[in-house]
Inverse folding.
């Protein structure tokens, strides 16, 4: 399981049990594909004092997707794009913003992941990565609620020696914003476009070190 999903699962358990906020501690290792996996023996919970961290929301701009197909019976080829800025990582990181792009096949109707909507709800797509420091921006589509309404998972690993002490100076923050887009146009049955002109703020919901 991806470390971000491990963190979200543990936070869900805390929410149900009524426990205090906690920090998920997962030591990642680099895979050949550039992704990260948690080492099982390095995953545990660390309780945090209330309000120890005050993370600003991720800022998402130019959010939207466009789908096109050459034949009415074909699936659409869809591409989602957005610009992502992390205000929490500007002090010690050369890169604190990136652009994300994700493509999938879709019939324009089916919401669940599968043959008619090929988005991968399990796998993250890397938007930007520094292989030397292993800092990154990565995203995935969690689920569709409607054709113009979906949930994203966002993960950001960065360097921070102000709030963290060695060797845990590379925290990963994650968010799960629910995105609502406005329809921009449909030329015919072969083209769909949705877009959000306003900035979307994605609150930080979890942290891993």
């Amino acid at each position: 399981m991806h470390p971000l999903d491990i963190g979200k699962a543990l936070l869900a358990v805390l929410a149900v049990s009524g426990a205090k906020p906690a920090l998920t501690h997962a030591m990642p290792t680099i895979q050949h594909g550039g992704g990260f996996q948690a080492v099982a023996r390095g995953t545990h919970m660390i309780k945090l004092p209330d309000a120890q961290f005050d993370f600003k929301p991720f800022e998402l701009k130019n959010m939207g997707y466009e789908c096109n197909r050459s034949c009415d019976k074909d699936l659409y080829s869809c591409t989602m794009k957005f610009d992502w800025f992390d205000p929490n990582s500007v002090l010690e990181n050369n890169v604190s913003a990136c652009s994300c792009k994700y493509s999938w096949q879709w019939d324009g109707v089916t919401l669940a992941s599968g043959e008619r909507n090929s988005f991968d709800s399990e796998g993250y797509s890397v938007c930007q990565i520094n292989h030397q420091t292993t800092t990154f921006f990565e995203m995935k589509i969690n689920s569709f609620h409607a054709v113009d309404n979906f949930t994203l998972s966002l993960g950001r690993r960065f360097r921070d020696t102000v709030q963290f002490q060695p060797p845990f100076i590379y925290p990963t923050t994650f968010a799960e914003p629910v995105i609502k887009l406005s329809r921009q146009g449909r030329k015919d049955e072969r083209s769909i476009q949705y877009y959000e002109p306003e900035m979307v703020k994605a609150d930080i919901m979890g942290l891993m070190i």
